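Query structure, 266 tokens:
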């Protein structure tokens, strides 16, 4: 996949960057164990999985007892739907190559999530990229018609921004250049379509991520957000195979990948 450019500002795939994850403060964990006279060890190198196990074992003070592996422990937690334990595990993802239409759906997932999105008031969108809907990627005639429409919008935005900039400068000569740009762009952005590419930084706990994947990774979801869910699944499954152990990629009835969940609504 080639990156979008001024000559080809069209995006066909999303990108997922896993930028942040937790770490275990080993000294404090050992201090707790010593103070309580406990012995605890686990076999996973993934900090989030360790923290989820510690959280669960704290509920019953079962350190050093029962299930021996982290996978066994978390499988029991998940199959028992003791989902609150998973809320202690957090990942930070940066998502790009997605449309404003997608983020309108994404930010409906409120519980357990935090969002910081690219601002169209501060960022000049005259060179913005646009996400080609998956349906139009399948048909050359549809894509051509869609592209013609987007090109008209791109031209209209640039012209409006330029004209608005002159008007604002004349009407508010005392206004700072920064505020003039903001006033200009917040008006001009009104013509931008849902296809406009955006970037969003998302923080979510593992229970919330599981819920997102369960709802958006199915054939019933909008195609673009479904394909994003598949990419997020790949990143999180690689990062935490134990927490997402019961989630797998399968082929949907439409031939596209989707996320299958064994333990629903954890």
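Result returned for the query:
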């Amino acid at each position: 996949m080639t990156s979008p450019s001024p000559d080809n500002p069209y995006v066909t795939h999303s990108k997922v960057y896993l930028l942040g994850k937790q770490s275990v403060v080993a000294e404090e964990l050992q201090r707790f164990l010593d103070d309580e006279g406990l012995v605890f060890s686990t076999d996973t190198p993934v900090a989030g999985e360790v923290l989820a196990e510690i959280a669960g074992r704290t509920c019953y003070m079962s350190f050093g007892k029962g299930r021996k592996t982290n996978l066994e422990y978390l499988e029991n937690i998940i199959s028992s739907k003791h989902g609150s334990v998973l809320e202690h595990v957090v990942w930070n993802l940066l998502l790009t190559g997605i449309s404003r239409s997608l983020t309108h759906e994404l930010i409906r997932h409120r519980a357990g999530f935090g969002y910081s999105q690219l601002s169209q008031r501060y960022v000049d969108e005259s060179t913005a990229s646009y996400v080609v809907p998956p349906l139009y990627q399948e048909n050359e005639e549809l894509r051509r018609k869609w592209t013609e429409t987007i090109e008209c919008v791109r031209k209209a935005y640039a012209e409006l921004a330029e004209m608005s900039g002159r008007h604002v400068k004349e009407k508010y000569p005392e206004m700072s250049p920064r505020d003039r740009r903001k006033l200009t762009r917040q008006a001009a952005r009104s013509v931008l379509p849902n296809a406009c590419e955006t970037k969003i930084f998302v923080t979510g706990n593992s229970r919330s991520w599981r819920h997102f994947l369960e709802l958006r990774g199915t054939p019933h979801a909008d195609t673009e957000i479904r394909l994003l869910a598949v990419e997020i699944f790949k990143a999180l499954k690689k990062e935490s195979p134990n927490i997402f152990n019961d989630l797998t990629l399968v082929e949907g009835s439409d031939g596209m990948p989707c996320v299958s969940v064994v333990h629903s609504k954890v």
